[in-house]
Amino acid sequence: MSDSEIQAGVGGVDLEDGEKKLSKKELGKLARKQKKAEKKHQYQKYWYDKMSTPESLPSAAGSVDSAQEAPNKLLKSKRFLRLAVAGCSHGEMDQIYETLTQWERQSGKKFDLLICTGDFQAIRNYGDLHYMKSPDKYKNLMTFYKYYNGGFIRSSVKMMHRSLLRVPGNWLLKQSRNLNLQEHHGLSLLDRQKIQVPPCGVANSAEEAYQQAKNIGGKDYVVKAQVLAGGRGKGKFDSGLEGGVQIVFTPEEARDKAKMMIGAKLFTKQTGNNGILCEKVLICKRLFTRREYYFSITLDRNTNGPILIGSSKGGVNIEEVAATDPGAITTTPINFETGVTPEIAKNVADRMGFKDDCRDQAADTIQKLYNLFINSDATLIEINPMAEDVNGDVYCMDCKFVLDSNADFRQKDLFALKDTKQEDELELRAAKYNLNYIRLDGNIGCMVNGAGLAMATMDIIKLHGGEPANFLDVGGGATVQQVTEAFKIITADEKKVHAILVNIFGGIMRCDVIAQGIINAVNELDLKIPIVVRLQGTQVDDAKALIANSKMRILACDNLDEAAKMVVKLSSIIQLAKLANVDVKFELSI
Predict the structure, then answer these.
(1) 509 has binding-site annotation
(2) CB contact at 8 A, 436 and 328
């Protein structure tokens, strides 16, 4: 660019008469900036044009050799990829992904070209790009750009291509409050919808198990412990039996296994140290499967609707599949108005890997499962595995069924199936007072307002070497009575809880209400264990005055980090004293 061109105007800046002229150095800098912006614009426009036109993309049957070549200059400055493409199916987006990664390899750069796949719409939340950290590298950085009503992603050089889980975010998350049905209830609901399930029957005793096996007929059976916990197959009973899912070959064996299950506690990764009492077993006819698949329907916050999740890898932990082979998982967001049409169901079945006649059976099953999901106000229906047997028939071999608790007023028949015996007594008690409580294995009680702050509080306790005894969120509108009940729940096992940390950030929640609840609880329960209170926000001065005037030995701390350190040290002192079989009396300044 010549000096005259620079003086004439650069980067859209025209110099008028009487206006102060920029120096040559400043104009040169402005020119370089404009040139760089134009180059970026051209590159973005290139990808937008190419990836917004599915017809111009390589076909699913085509190879990279026959596909269009990407300009080398663009690959050298590669940074942006289109995230959402209106009208592109999973298969088309997968093909785009494969082709672009091949281009990336050919250009000699690192294989870090990333793209999100899915049944995309014109407007899509950036949260659809959900990634998980690889075990060896934790520094994953993403920067999002918006261009022509679409999102582009710039991936940092440190990002690992294996770290991207190409499914919408939050699809594995569950509601904090819901109704989990026992497996036999779920299979019964499926059977009513004319969905094929293995012949089965529930038994409350060993003799009933024997009779159910006789009624089913055949020679091979599966005995399943009916507990509301995952990981049954790898669990262990306190009776000595290994595994909550047993294969047997005679009704007599079914009786023997049931005898060791019923009345015994099953311990799995999800039950914790307390285990869950097994009161029933399910006797199923053993089917010999040729292929096993995974299928589930749940709710996705990003698309504000149901989402179908399928995989050709069934019968195993789906989280492990997501971590090791994310490409094996397929997702399909569903529009509430249109629902699952026969075309959508067949497409999902095809992408899951069903072949020939089984594809139609699987599609029919998927449609029926979706209708059941909607009509029952479910938040999750999980079939693992959905299987094809040796005769070519499609069966739902297992069923996890979760209902939205807010639907109890119109799903009374389903909520009548609730098994409260297998739910934690303290969690049931907390639910009566609209408190979100989960029992944990530590010794530091926690009372917090807000789930996010509660998680952060537990994290900082663990950071300083402590172990939370519970998760307890009192919410944003708790009353004095609720706070008092929360303390009663936390201290229900006083031998276990050595200290309590109260962490309240008062927005909607008033700190003085929390303080009054604490005072009431301490007076009513005559608590001897130390309490550390960190209050900030609405009415915090009134709250501190209430605590000070109460003359109680409550340690107040404004800094969360210091409060966490304090409660961890106090719990350690209590624990050491208990081990030494001595009493400890605290005199804490207010």
Answers:
(1) yes
(2) no
Does 537 appear as a known binding residue? no
Tell which residue, 188, 112, 103, 204, has the closest CA to residue 421: 204
Question: What is the rounded CA–CA span in Å between residue 32 and residue 456?
Answer: 45
Token pair for 463: 């950071």
Is 404 annotated as belonging to a binding site? no
CA–CA gap between residue 169 and residue 252 (Å, rounded): 47
Angle ∠(16,20,23) on CA atoms, nearest 5: 110
Using alpha carbons, select from 181, 111, 171, 187 the residue that is nearest to residue 405: 181
- Segment (H or E) for 290: strand 289-300
Query: For the chain, how many helices (H) and strands (E)?
Result: 17, 25
Q: What is the CA radius of gyration of the chain?
A: 30
Q: Is 400 helix (H, G, I), strand (E, B) or coil?
A: strand
Mean confidence (pLDDT) of the chain = 75
Burial class from Cβ neighbours inside 10 Å (0-12, 13-18, 19+) for residue 12 reads exposed
Please tell me whether 169 is known to bind a ligand: no
Please report, as a single letter, which amino acid is at residue 434: N
Entry pTM: 0.57
DSSP string, 476-539: SS--HHHHHHHHHHHGGGTTT--EEEEEEEESSS-HHHHHHHHHHHHHHHT--S-EEEEEEETT
Q: Which residues is 402 bridged to in the sheet?
A: 180, 380
Catalytic site residues? 294, 382
Please report which confidence band the pLDDT of residue 95 belongs to, taking 50, 70 and 90 as the band edges. Answer: low
Token digits of residue 406: 């807010």
pLDDT in tens, 142-179: 222 222 223 333 332 223 232 232 333 333 333 345 78
3-class secondary-structure state, position 468: strand
The tens digit of pLDDT for each residue in 302-347 reads: 888 999 999 998 877 787 888 888 888 999 999 988 999 999 999 9
Could you give all domains of the chain from N- to C-terminal order, each with its CATH number? 3-39 (no CATH), 48-163 (no CATH), 199-285 (3.30.1490.20), 289-415 (3.30.470.20), 425-579 (3.40.50.261)
CB 366 within 8 A of CB 304: no
Place of tokens 């796949």: 117
**Which distant-in-sequence residues (6+ apart) come within 8 Å of 356 by Cβ?**
392
